[in-house]
């Protein structure tokens, strides 16, 4: 059943978000067509009766012979036993139909809404006891639409039955001249013709009703742009706050990176656009590691901090460009740059007497 459309400021032009749909589902609000379920139930029941019709009529003939026998009609004390026997026979005849109806009802519900368990609709609500709101629900647009649908459904099914009966009217009038077994056989055919026509009409009605229920459900779940923004703030956080947090995180990351520059072994530059700080301690590290990198103004800042802390700054355009574009902070030097970086470290050792 689709939820009632609540009144709120603004036009509800936006499709419901996944969170809104999930909340509605938790409350038991889904797009579900009762006519769709009823149509498939009717189809299954008619099919089962058609399959087991010979058994049904055989049992019916057998019981009719017993009931109208002189022994049962002349002994009134046997009437309770006769009725009990009739009930047992009825259930023996109809249990496949009832079982099929239950299975089909469960299957069609699962097909429409999937597996869903909620006690939300069972919770007491004071709104249901409000007389004014009760009148509003009775005379609401949705109630009028449901009434119009019911009347249209009755009209369509009645029209279908009349059409089938009109086609069979000659056969019906001719039954009086036939023998009883033939009358029963013809009557069965007429009844099944009517049943099949009704099932087809009801299936069509059920499919259209399912499409309508889904459309109405989506329509009633629509949200205003303000509601979308508010939900976004609740789930993702306020955009302004998130922007400030990201800026703060960048500042902290920048600060930690700049604190590593004085500990670096060498800073490789482009020379003007890129700067990459490399650290290598032979006995502690299996390979040199990138501890800082930057471009343009940040590159100038890295070089400035390096000079202030007597960290060698060396120009090597290919190495600086490759490291800046293909490594992140904390990454080891790629295998293809081992030789080039080793040569840089060797120069640093010989020129600046810096031990690793």
Automatic annotation (TrEMBL):
InterPro entries: FlhB, T3SS_substrate_exporter, T3SS_substrate_exporter_C. GO terms for biological process: bacterial-type flagellum assembly; protein secretion. The keyword Cell membrane applies. It is a multi-pass membrane protein. Keywords: Bacterial flagellum biogenesis, Bacterial flagellum protein export, Cell membrane, Cell projection, Cilium, Flagellum, Membrane, Protein transport, Transmembrane, Transmembrane helix, Transport. The chain crosses the membrane at residues 34-52, 82-107, 151-170, 190-212. Residues 11-26 have a biased composition (Basic and acidic residues). Residues 1-29 are annotated as: Disordered. GO terms for cellular component: plasma membrane. Signal peptide: none annotated. Its main location: membrane. It is found in: Cell membrane. Coiled coil: none annotated. Required for formation of the rod structure in the basal body of the flagellar apparatus. Together with FliI and FliH, may constitute the export apparatus of flagellin. Belongs to the type III secretion exporter family. NCBIfam families: flhB (TIGR00328). This is Flagellar biosynthetic protein FlhB. It comes from Formimonas warabiya.
């Amino acid at each position: 059943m689709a939820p009632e459309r609540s009144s709120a400021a603004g036009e509800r032009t936006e499709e419901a978000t996944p969170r809104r749909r999930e909340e509605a589902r938790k409350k038991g609000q889904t797009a579900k067509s009762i006519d769709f379920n009823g149509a498939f139930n009717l189809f299954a029941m008619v099919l089962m009766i058609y399959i087991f019709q010979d058994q049904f009529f055989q049992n019916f003939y057998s019981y009719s012979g017993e009931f109208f026998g002189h022994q049962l009609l002349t002994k009134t004390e046997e009437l309770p036993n006769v009725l009990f026997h009739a009930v047992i026979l009825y259930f023996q005849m109809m249990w496949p139909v009832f079982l099929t109806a239950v299975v089909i009802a469960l299957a069609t519900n699962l097909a429409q809404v999937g597996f869903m368990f909620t006690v939300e609709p069972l919770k007491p609500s004071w709104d249901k006891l409000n007389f004014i709101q009760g009148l509003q629900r009775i005379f609401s647009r949705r109630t009028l639409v449901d009434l119009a649908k019911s009347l249209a459904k009755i009209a369509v099914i009645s029209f279908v039955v009349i059409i089938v009966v009109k086609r069979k009217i000659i056969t019906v009038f001719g039954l009086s001249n036939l023998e009883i077994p033939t009358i029963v056989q013809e009557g069965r055919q007429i009844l099944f013709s009517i049943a099949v026509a009704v099932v087809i009409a009801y299936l069509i009605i059920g499919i259209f009703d399912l499409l309508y229920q889904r459309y109405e459900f989506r329509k009633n779940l629509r949200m205003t742009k303000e509601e979308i923004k508010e939900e976004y703030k609740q789930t993702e956080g306020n955009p302004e706050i998130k922007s400030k947090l990201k800026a703060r995180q960048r500042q902290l990351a920048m600060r930690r990176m700049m604190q590593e520059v004085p500990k670096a072994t060498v800073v490789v530059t482009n020379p003007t656009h890129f700067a990459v700080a490399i650290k290598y301690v032979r006995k502690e590290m299996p390979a040199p590691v990138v501890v800082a990198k930057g471009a343009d103004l940040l590159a100038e800042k890295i070089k400035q901090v390096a000079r202030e802390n007597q960290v060698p700054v060396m120009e090597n355009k290919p190495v600086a460009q490759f490291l800046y574009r293909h490594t992140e902070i904390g990454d080891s030097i790629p295998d293809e740059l081992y030789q080039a970086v080793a040569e840089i470290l060797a120069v640093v050792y010989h020129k600046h007497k810096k031990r690793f």
